[in-house]
Amino acid sequence: CDRCWSRGCSPGCKKCLGEQRRPAAPPPATVLILVPTRELALQIQAQLAADVRPLGLRCHALIGGRSVRKDISALRRGQHVVVGNMGRVHDMISKRHLKADSLKLLLLDEADALCGQGSRDVLYEILRFLSPDVQVACFASTLPRDVCELFPRFLRDPPLLIVDGGGEHALSAELLREDGGIHEDGYMPRHLQHLCVVGTSGAKIRYLASLWGSLAGPRCIVFCASRRTVDQVAAWLHGALRGVGCKVRSVHAEMDQAERERAVHVFRKGWAQVLVCAQDFARGLDFPDVSVAV
């Protein structure tokens, strides 16, 4: 070969052949998507993987409750897009398994939750590892003023795109001011019906069970304030709705990751009609056929 000739070594030497056969370095991740829950990370990863696979790109989810060793192995093979929760992502970046200097785009989905009191310190730590030239985009269904006041710390003169409720989804844009001023007109779909029930826990469960027969093929998500309440409400609903052939599944953070994924899968497939979960669980999750939220 030409290298052998220029080096003066024998044709086909092992050193030159080894250099020719050396595989290309795996691609580093250039896009990082941070989300507040494991289930949302898995949903985004599944959708992105299907979209980018024909392009020869790879996407991986970094979430707690799964093997750290498998995450490290996946990153070493090369991932173009990484979706994950802040705890596992921070761990991978701090140990240099995820190359922060190669990231070009950071997306914060459900930014109001990521910038909350309990998680903003971890977010700041992740941002500290990133290049100052990285592009940052935030997405949220609600933007409390205290969250908006944090944006100037890591966003530079960001335009604010607001989806309003004027018939079709119209986009309006304005600059987010340093004082946190935002467009505060709320959006609530006009086709929704609202019902407020005041009473004891048992009375509310009995009312929901009695209402079930008047709803046409309902699929329901019940949000609870605590993990303990999730188990209690799921047990009550299971007993109250068992007679009408309704199956109930529950999800909360103390469950094993495999159990959580199985419960969401069963509900998404329609094999269970009710999903009981903590109030922040369903952030960003897409259940298009759900007709009732409690």
TrEMBL record:
UniProt xrefs under SUPFAM superfamilies: P-loop containing nucleoside triphosphate hydrolases (SSF52540)
InterPro entries in the cross-refs: DEAD/DEAH_box_helicase_dom (IPR011545), Helicase_ATP-bd (IPR014001), Helicase_C-like (IPR001650), P-loop_NTPase (IPR027417)
One Pfam family named in its UniProt record: DEAD
Signal peptide: none
The UniProt record lists the keyword Hydrolase: yes
Gene3D superfamilies per record: P-loop containing nucleotide triphosphate hydrolases
GO molecular function: ATP binding; hydrolase activity; nucleic acid binding; RNA helicase activity
The Helicase C-terminal domain, residue ranges: 207-294
Residue ranges constituting the Helicase ATP-binding domain according to the UniProt record: 31-161
EC number: 3.6.4.13
Keyword annotations from UniProtKB, A to Z: ATP-binding, Helicase, Hydrolase, Nucleotide-binding
Name recorded for this polypeptide: RNA helicase
Taxonomic source organism: Alexandrium andersonii
Organism ancestry: Eukaryota, Sar, Alveolata, Dinophyceae, Gonyaulacales
